[in-house]
Each structure stands twice: as C-alpha cells, then as structure tokens.
Specification:
Oligomer: single chain
Number of helices: 16
Shape: globular
Order of helices and strands: HHHHHHHHHHHHHHHHEEEE
Radius of gyration: 24 Å
Distance between the termini: 42 Å
Helix content: 55-70%
Largest sheet: 2 strands, antiparallel
Strand content: under 5%
C-alpha cells in the first residue's frame, strides 16, 4: 500500500476510538479558565494524487484511465451498448488496453487517497469502461475461436482487476466486478481449449491472484473514508446545514436528521450523539476486520438494531464493508475454481485420469473461503464435480441455481 501523507499517519497508527474519545471529551467538559473548546477532528482532506510515468502499475492504470475517459467522452457513462457500439469502443480504446497490459507487468502500489462521501473516487469511470472492453474483447475472441487472444485478455484483465482491490471499497468492488465478468466470459469455453491453453490460463490467473492485496488493506483504507464521513456529518451539524445531508443520503435518513436537528444546538447532546455514532462505526470496522479469514459459520452477524433515532446513519457510513467481504469471498472462490477446472480438464485432454482428490494441488489454491476447508471434489474416470459450500457453509451435493450461487457456489460452466 502507498504511504499516506504525514497528516494522516497518527489516525492510522493510533487507536481511532481513543482519538475520537479525546476530541469528544474536550467538548463534554467545556471551557476551563477561558480556554476555547477543542473541536473534534476525525480527518482532514488530503491533496489528490498526481499520477506520473513510473514502475508502479498504479500510475499506468491511473494515466490510462484518464486517457480512456478523454477518448470515450459522452460514451463514458453509458449503461448499455449495442453490438456496433461495443466494436467501436474496443477499437477506440485498443491503445489503452495495450497500456494496461504494459502497466500490469509491474507491481501495483495503490495510491489511495481518502475522499468525502458522495464524491466519486478518481479514475473509476475510466477503469470501469476498460474492464468492459476487456470483457468484450474476450467474448468476441471466444466467438471467433481465437482462444489464445481470449486467454491474454482474461489474464491481463484479471491482474488489472485484482490490483484495483487495493483501494477503498468502491475501488475493490469495481475490481472484483471486472474479474467476475472476465471469468464468466471465458469459463463456458474451457472444454474447447487445448492442454497448453488450459495450462496458460491457469498459470496466468494464479499469477494474478498472487498480486491481489489482502482484504484487510482495503478495509483499512475504507476506514479512512469513514473518518471523513464522520467529519462530514459533524461539519454539517456545526454549519447548521442538515439539508445537505438529506439531499446526499436520501429520504430514508429523515428520522436521523430530525434527531440531529434536536441536539445540534446543545453542545452536550451533540457530543454524545457524535460519540455514540463514532463508537458504532469503529466497533463495526473492528468486528469486520476480525471476521476476515474466518469461515462464514464463525463470523459475527450484523446488529439487528442500532441505538437511538440516528440508526439510519451508520447504514450510509458503513453499508459497504460487509457486502464487500461477501463479494470478495465469492470472487476468490470462483477464481480458484477456474484455475482448478483448467488444471483438472488439462489432465482429461491429455487422456490422463482425474486426480482422486485435491491433494495434488497447493493448499492455498484448494481452500474454500467460505469454509476454510478444501473445496468439495468428486471424480471418476468420466467426469468430476468441484464446488464451494457457499454462504450457508453446508455441502449440498453441488446443487446450485441458475446463477451458480446457491445453495452451493460453482464455477459458471455448462454441463460439458
């Protein structure tokens, strides 16, 4: 991870609750001997990072995102594309795809800068469009039978996607979405690959997985965003600008806003409100951080009810982190399944027997994120069955739905 500016180092290395308590205590005790009350300060805005050509993949990704945004112009935020528009966009952004491929050869140190809530993080519009182009290139290559090109697009695109997970929650969810789209685009064609193609795909995806930052890094970054969110709430209360919060958060926070309006002019009540809100946020981050790496059955459940009339606010401050953990687990599980499928199918293509168990593969590759135990696997001479227990943590015999998600989670492959 990139180093944060010096102004933020104390927030990252100190206990956030202690920092919050110190600032809020000064509000609660009031003035002494004519001294001014110290205002709580959770975070300060940091200057934007300026990308420049370097050996850091992030700089290449950021500069290419800006290039893609400039090229796409009015098409940048388009929700859907017709086939001819996809073709035109792939041609237009071909130089950008080459730039991403070149940048992906380097290690990525994500230059994360916290941002205020409701403010778009930089580069994401360009990254989202580039992810789509990787997907469209993969789909068209597979339809044309050019599986070598498809494999190059998927392996480069997946490395790029996993590198993006080193930012905050929205960066990470974007990266995971790109990885999911690329995997689904190629998985249905695995039976058409030669042994050497299956081997290249497996090796390329394994290399991309090695580069993926741990989810705990992402959560630490998102905690910095949360601190800025706390500051935004406090600044709005102090400035008597509650309308801005309602406008940004939507009507479902009206109950919370009415409560804030009642306490905003009372220093003690205002401080108590902010203290309770900050403790709720910090406790939730700590719980989720501790849960990462545990099987689903051992993870804490979201609080059924939050205290007081402000219960809607934590949803907007914290609503990204638990879904992100779930999305990360599903993406990692299916990415591992893709590699295992390629490795096992390669043996079949070489007229070799399927392995009796997954012990022939590395332990790291075979561990199911949902159970912390090996994936479920059954094989005979004619076929094999491989799957994750999914979010319910149970072995349902490989039974799944049309999305390959529940009750068991599987790779999105047809029945060959």
């Amino acid at each position: 991870m990139g180093n944060l500016p010096n102004t933020m180092i104390p927030l990252r290395r100190s206990n956030p609750i202690a920092i919050l308590a110190l600032g809020l205590t000064s509000l609660l005790i009031g003035c002494h001997g004519g001294d001014e009350v110290r205002e709580p300060n959770w975070a300060t805005d940091q200057p934007a990072y300026t990308p420049r050509p370097s050996e850091n993949a992030f700089d290449g990704y950021a500069l290419t995102a800006l290039d893609a945004e400039s090229r796409a112009r009015s098409n940048l935020d388009r929700v859907s594309y017709f086939p001819d528009q996809k073709t035109a966009m792939c041609k237009l952004l071909a130089p950008c795809i080459k730039s991403i491929a070149e940048a992906s050869k380097h290690t990525c140190e994500f230059k994360f800068v916290p941002h205020r809530p409701f403010k778009s993080a930089p580069y994401q519009a360009g990254w989202r469009l580039l992810g789509r182009v990787f997907q469209w290139n993969t789909e068209s290559a597979c339809l044309a039978g050019d599986y070598d090109l498809a494999i190059r697009q998927v392996t480069v695109g997946t490395k790029f996607a996993f590198d993006l997970t080193g930012g905050g929650a929205t960066d990470a969810s974007l990266g995971l979405s790109i990885a999911n789209d690329l995997r689904k685009a190629i998985a249905r064609y695995l039976n058409k690959f030669t042994p050497s193609q299956l081997d290249r795909l497996a090796r390329g995806i394994k290399e991309a997985m090695i580069s993926k930052p741990p989810l705990t890094d992402t959560l630490k970054n998102e905690h910095q965003n949360m601190l800025l969110s706390m500051q935004t709430v406090y600044d709005a209360i102090k400035a008597d600008d509650l309308k801005s919060l309602t406008k940004q958060m939507g009507p479902d926070v009206n109950e919370a806003i009415r409560f804030i309006d009642q306490v905003r002019t009372n220093e003690g009540k205002r401080s108590k409100f902010m203290n309770e809100l900050s403790v709720t946020c910090d406790d939730e981050f700590k719980i989720v951080q501790d849960d990462v790496g545990k099987p689903y059955s051992e993870r804490s459940k979201p609080p059924a009810e939050l205290k007081n009339q402000w219960k809607k606010l934590p949803k907007h401050l914290l609503g990204t982190i638990r879904p992100l953990v779930s999305m990360n687990d599903a993406t990692v599980a299916r990415t591992k399944l893709l590699v295992l499928y390629a490795e096992i199918m390669k043996l079949g293509k070489e007229h070799k027997p399927y392995p009796d168990n997954l012990g022939v593969f590395t332990k790291e590759l075979t561990i199911d994120p949902f159970s912390n135990a090996p994936f479920l696997y059954h094989a005979d001479q004619a076929e094999f069955l491989l799957y994750s227990v999914g979010a319910n943590g149970r072995d349902d015999g490989g039974d799944t739905d049309e999305t390959f998600t529940t009750p068991d989670l599987k790779l999105e492959v047809p029945n060959f």
